[in-house]
Design goal:
Blueprint: E1 11-19, H1 22-32, E2 36-41, E3 44-49, E4 52-59, E5 72-80, H2 83-96, E6 101-106, E7 110-116, E8 122-128, E9 136-137, E10 140-141, H3 150-157, H4 160-168, E11 180-188, H5 192-202, E12 206-211, E13 214-218, E14 226-229, E15 244-251, H6 255-267, E16 273-274, E17 280-283, E18 289-293
Parallel strand pairs: 1-4, 5-8, 11-14, 15-18
Antiparallel strand pairs: 1-15, 2-3, 3-4, 5-11, 6-7, 7-8, 9-10, 12-13, 13-14, 16-17, 17-18
Helix pairs in contact: 2-3, 2-4
Length: 294
């Protein structure tokens, strides 16, 4: 039966970034953020954990640098399965590239640390608190942004074994747990009402929170799989080609779910394409590419 809500098992896939310096960006995500280099195909590198691709870097030096006031990526949020795993990645980053740190936040549902990669793409490193500690009121999850002392977080959660690993042998990938994923993706858009029409009314996400200039949406009761804000981009239109966000992947449980969503998008006048892997591609109102697969 057709439904306008995404299945509960929907999750985020990887994020593709178009970059100028493929070697430097690969080294950052591999050696600093401790992702595995899974595959290299000419001008493209896949990084993730195990066989799960979290970030795909595509060498596109022909593209202009992306502008700050435009639609695109706000951050890719890399979810760690425990505070200790998060502390390990945070320590690696703090030792290697502390100048790229941009902030931290206790969001009640999670604890997060923010940074930019070497080409200015936002990254969030976070872990979730247990779901039974989340507070829901009238279908909305309670979130906030409270200060976290990064050094205090490291003192509380970085194990001696992880400290030795980070300081002496960052190539020992076996020391890191496998449970690292893209937990959510946060986009810059021009208008939150338009974002709601596309991501909720068309794609089928549920609204979980709204803040001034920001919309948070999810499937299956997660605090958010995607977010859209206008904090740096209010009123902007279709993005022009440039470095930065290339694609966001959303993974549905079955091919039937993808077909159902595709039919709904077409019925609402959204152009839908199929790529070489038979995944479905569509653009949001600002030209941010979303790819759907099972």
């Amino acid at each position: 039966m057709s439904t306008s809500t995404l299945p509960e098992a929907t999750r985020m896939g990887g994020v593709a970034l178009d970059v100028a310096d493929l070697d430097a960006m690969t080294a950052f995500y591999r050696d600093v953020l401790l992702l595995d280099q899974i595959a290299e195909r000419g001008d493209q590198v896949d990084l993730g954990r195990g066989s799960d691709v979290l970030v795909t870097l595509r060498h596109r030096p022909d593209l202009p640098r992306g502008e700050r006031r435009t639609a695109g990526l706000f951050h890719t949020a890399i979810l760690h399965d425990s505070p200790g795993a998060l502390a390990t990645t945070l320590a690696s980053f703090a030792l290697a590239r502390p100048e790229l740190f941009t902030g931290s936040g206790d969001h009640l549902v999670s604890e997060a640390f923010y940074l930019d990669d070497p080409e200015g793409n936002g990254v969030e490193l976070y872990h979730d608190r247990p779901r039974d500690q989340w507070t829901w009121v009238d279908g909305r999850v309670r979130m906030d942004t409270l200060y976290i002392d990064p050094n205090g977080f490291l003192r509380d959660h970085l194990t001696p074994q992880a400290r030795d690993f980070v300081e002496t042998d960052p190539g020992a990938r076996a020391a890191l747990p496998a449970g690292t994923t893209v937990g959510h993706v946060h986009l810059k858009v021009g208008d939150t009402a338009q974002a709601l029409d596309f991501y909720v009314d068309t794609l089928g996400f549920d609204v979980t929170a709204e803040l001034p200039g920001a919309l948070f949406v999810s499937a299956g009761g997660y605090h958010h799989h995607m977010a859209m804000n206008t904090w740096q981009s209010e009123g902007v239109g279709l993005r022009t080609p440039g470095m930065g966000l290339g694609r966001v992947d959303v993974v549905l449980p079955t091919d039937a779910d993808v077909a159902d969503l595709t039919a709904r998008a077409r019925a609402r006048g959204v152009q839908v394409r199929t790529d070489a892997s038979s995944a479905v591609e569509l653009d949001d109102p600002w030209g941010n590419l979303v790819r759907l697969s099972a």
